[in-house]
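Hi support team,

I've been running sequence recovery on a batch of backbones for a student project. Most finish fine, but this one hangs at about 90% for roughly twenty minutes before it completes. I'm not sure whether the input is malformed or the queue is just slow. I've pasted the structure tokens below so you can try to reproduce it. Let me know if you need the job ID as well.

Thanks,
M.K.
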């Protein structure tokens, strides 16, 4: 085999290694993000505890204490979100009305079309929070 063929083979193998590394990293990150999104607060607690444990070399007792603290805080945050939700909804509704008031009828239609996906996502978010709060 000539030298240039050997170089081509080495470059192809190197490029394949880079591709596999990038693909594997992407899959790993996607999996971690999906698990956090699907599991919500418990996954976040677990991830934070894991990262703190690795960085601070926590003992098993310390890990348990951190997890309990994070869980307690998440419950308190859920209650706080539930308490202020009506105020947030009122503020958002008023903001939409204020913006619409300054638009022409044609612009209002376009604005309504523009914000519809946000409204749907907000409703989905509220449903998910309600489901998470009842668990």
């Amino acid at each position: 085999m000539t030298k240039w063929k050997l170089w081509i083979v080495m470059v192809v193998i190197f490029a394949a290694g880079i591709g596999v590394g990038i693909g594997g990293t992407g899959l790993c990150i996607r999996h971690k993000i999906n698990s956090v999104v699907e599991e919500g607060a418990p996954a976040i607690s677990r991830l934070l505890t894991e990262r703190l444990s690795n960085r601070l070399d926590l003992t098993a007792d310390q890990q348990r204490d951190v997890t309990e603290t994070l869980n307690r805080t998440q419950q308190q945050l859920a209650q706080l979100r539930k308490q202020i939700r009506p105020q947030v909804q009122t503020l958002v509704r008023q903001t939409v009305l204020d913006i619409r008031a300054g638009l022409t009828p044609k612009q209002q239609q376009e604005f309504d079309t523009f914000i519809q996906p946000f409204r749907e996502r907000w409703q989905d978010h509220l449903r998910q929070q309600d489901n998470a709060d009842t668990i």
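--
Follow-up from support: It reproduced on our side and the slowdown came from queue contention, not your input. The chain has a mean pLDDT of 87. No action needed from you.
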